[in-house]
Amino acid sequence: MPNKKIFIIAGEVSGDALGARIMRQMENVEFAGIGGAEMTAQGLRSIFPMSDLAVMGIIEVLVHVRTLTARINQTVDAIIKYAPDVVLTIDSPGFARSVIKKLRKSAVGQKMIARGLRFHHVVAPQVWAWRPGRAKKYARVFDKLYAFFDFEVPYFTKYGLDTVAVGHPIAEGLIGCDKPFKKSEKIITLVPGSRAGEVRRLLPVFRDFVEKIPNVGRYKFAIPVVETTAEYVRSFVADWKVKPEIIPAAARYDLYRRTYLAVVASGTVSAELAMLHVPAIVAYKMNRVTTWIGHLLIRVRWVSLVNILLNRAIYPEFLGEKATAENIVRAFKQMNGLGARKKIASELCAADNMWVRPDGMPSKIIAESVSASGRPSSSVTAKR
C-alpha cells in the first residue's frame, strides 16, 4: 500500500512547532508543504520561506497583498501537482481559508475532492474573540477542525463542522516546573515576537524598559530570535547599555525554564510561559488604524490565553498606546518579589488541567485522525 501523502502548511513559528510535533507522530507518510526550521528538521522541504506568511494586522496584510496573493496561487498549484490525501493547515486561518477556497472552486480541485481529498485544520480560529458568526465561513471550507479547548467546539459544530478538542499540543512535556519562582540567576527574557513588524515596534519599548529597571546590574537579559529577524535584533541591541544574549528560537524552552521574569509580545509565547509557570508581562503594538479597528471588534477583555482561560489578569497586559516602558517597569516592580512570584506560580498551576486532556497527547490524536482521513470515498464534500 503506498504511503499516505500529506500537504502540510504552517505560517509562523508556533505553527511550525506544532507541525513538527504532529509529523513526528506519523509513520509511513510523505510530506510536502510550507514550514519552518522545526518542520524542515522532520524532513519537510518548504515550497517557499514560511516568513512570507508571517503578516498580522489589517494594514499590514494590505501592504503585502501582492506577495500573499502570489503565495496563495503558488500553494494551490503545488497541492494540485502533489495530489495529497489530506491538506493539513496549522493556524494562519486567513491564508489557509484562501488556499482551500480557491482549490475547491477549481475544476481540478473538485475532482481531487471527489477522489477523497480532505481539508483538516489545527487551531480553531478565535471567532469567540471577534465575531462568532465567522465560524460559518470556516465550516464551509474545512472538513475537520482540531480545537484546543472544549469551549471552542460549539462555535463550529453549530454550523456542521466536525470539531474535536484535543488539548494544547505545546503542553506536551512542557507543563510545570520545579519551584519556578526560585532562580539561581535572574534572567529577564524579552520576546518581541517572530514577525518583522512586531519586532520593529516592540524592541524600542523593551530597550527603554531595560534602561529604566532599578538596579539593572542584578539581572541578565536574553532574547530568543527566529532566523528571519535574528540579524535585525542583533543590530538593534548592539548599542544597548546592557547587552542581552541572543538565543536561537530552537533553544527557547531551555531559556524559558531558567527565566526569572519575561516581557513578551502577545501570542503563543505567553501560553508557553504559563505552562512553565513563569511570571510574564504581555505587551503589543500595532499601527494606529489596526489598533483602532481592533478596539471596535474585539469581544474579550484580555488577549493572553491564560488570562482568558482563568477569567482574570494573571499576566499584566499593555496593548497599543499602553505598551510603554513606564507601564512595564511598574508591573515589573509589583511582580519582583518572592511573595508575588509564588502567588503567580500558584495561579498558573490552576490552569494546568486546562492545557491537557486525559485521553492522550494532542499531536498523537491529530496524527491518528489525519492518518485515518482522506481515503477514497464515493461521496463528494460539496462546500462553497
What would you note in describing this structure?
The chain is an alpha/beta fold. It contains 18 helices and twelve strands. The protein has a six-stranded parallel β-sheet, sandwiched between helices. It is globular and about 65 Å long. The model is unreliable at 56-63, 289-297 and 376-382 (pLDDT under 50).
Q: Main beta sheet: strand number and arrangement?
A: 6 strands, parallel
What is the beta-strand fraction?
A: 15-25%
Along the chain, the helix and strand elements come as EHEHHHEHHEHEHEEHEHEHEHEHHEHHHH
Helix content class: 40-55%
Number of DSSP helices?
Answer: 18
The radius of gyration over CA amounts to: 21 Å
Name the poorly predicted regions.
56-63, 289-297, 376-382
What is the SS-derived class? alpha/beta
Summarize the structure.
The chain is an alpha/beta fold and 384 residues long. It is 44% helix and 16% strand.
Features:
44% helix, disordered C terminus, 384 residues, alpha/beta, single chain, 18 helices, six-stranded parallel sheet, globular
List the helices and strands and how they pair.
Elements: E1 4-10, H1 13-24, E2 29-34, H2 37-41, H3 58-63, H4 65-82, E3 86-90, H5 93-105, H6 107-114, E4 118-122, H7 135-141, E5 144-147, H8 153-157, E6 162-165, E7 187-191, H9 196-212, E8 220-225, H10 227-237, E9 245-248, H11 252-257, E10 259-265, H12 268-275, E11 280-284, H13 288-297, H14 305-310, E12 317-319, H15 325-335, H16 338-349, H17 352-355, H18 362-371
Parallel strand pairs: 1-2, 1-3, 3-4, 4-5, 5-6, 7-8, 7-10, 8-9, 10-11, 11-12
Helix pairs in contact: 1-18, 4-5, 5-6, 9-10, 9-15
